[in-house]
Task: inverse folding
């Protein structure tokens, strides 16, 4: 697999916030997020600059499993980048982890479906809203064309409806127009308010502090859940946390 980094930390976002977790961050992404026209994706080294010299590179599934066994932890978070673009390898990895009784969370932008869902406990799906579009860059058209795949999102949502997989829908909140887009997605896909988590946009504690109150108010108004970004609050925006 193409891997950026692996590390042991706590989950910083969503319904399992605070849970000790072994992170596998895959490399490369099929989108190029840029928020508020200034902040790149918080893991831009897996998307905008995937050739970053600090990225691990290739690792076999066996090598990843060996590293996981060194930690006394059940939760595994497979994130990116976008892990589902390596669907075959991801499925094999999840199968091996599940044989070790791991609790598996896959963090995805929700654009690609695959057999990995059979071995996943929690799908953390973060559809990218129009506020993530990198306007006036060479990636603008690519991002706009790929950021939402409604049919794939419906397939994911059906897993939850059928009781096959837990799902949280996690959205970066930048402005009130984001809520309109979320409502439209709900109508198209069918997920419910109690599955939605809003997270303030920001790659440092100052940004989060500035947007936290408004994000919480939107959660109160619409009956959504709030999630912060604990890893940034505790350690700042750096790798390996």
Result:
């Amino acid at each position: 697999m193409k891997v950026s980094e692996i590390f042991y930390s706590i989950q910083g976002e969503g319904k399992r916030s605070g849970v000790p977790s072994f992170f596998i961050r895959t490399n490369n992404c099929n989108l190029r997020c840029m928020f508020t026209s200034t902040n790149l994706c918080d893991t831009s080294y897996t998307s905008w600059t995937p050739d970053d010299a600090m990225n691990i590179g290739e690792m076999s599934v066996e090598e990843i499993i060996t590293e996981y066994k060194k930690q006394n932890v059940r939760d595994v978070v497979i994130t990116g980048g976008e892990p589902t673009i390596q669907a075959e390898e991801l499925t094999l990895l999840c199968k091996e982890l599940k044989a070790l009784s791991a609790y598996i969370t896959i963090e995805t932008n929700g654009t690609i479906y695959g057999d990995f869902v059979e071995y996943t406990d929690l799908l953390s799906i973060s559809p990218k809203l129009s506020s993530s579009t990198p306007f006036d860059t060479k990636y603008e058209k690519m991002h706009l064309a790929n950021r939402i795949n409604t049919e794939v999102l419906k397939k994911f949502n059906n897993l939850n409806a059928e009781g096959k997989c837990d799902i949280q829908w996690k959205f970066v909140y930048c402005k009130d127009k984001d809520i309109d887009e979320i409502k439209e997605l709900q109508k198209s896909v069918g997920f419910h308010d109690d599955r939605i988590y809003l997270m303030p946009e920001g790659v440092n504690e100052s940004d989060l502090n500035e947007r936290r109150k408004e994000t919480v108010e939107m959660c109160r108004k619409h009956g959504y859940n709030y999630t912060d970004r604990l890893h940034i609050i505790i350690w700042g925006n750096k790798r390996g946390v």
In short: The two ends are 21 Å apart (CA to CA).
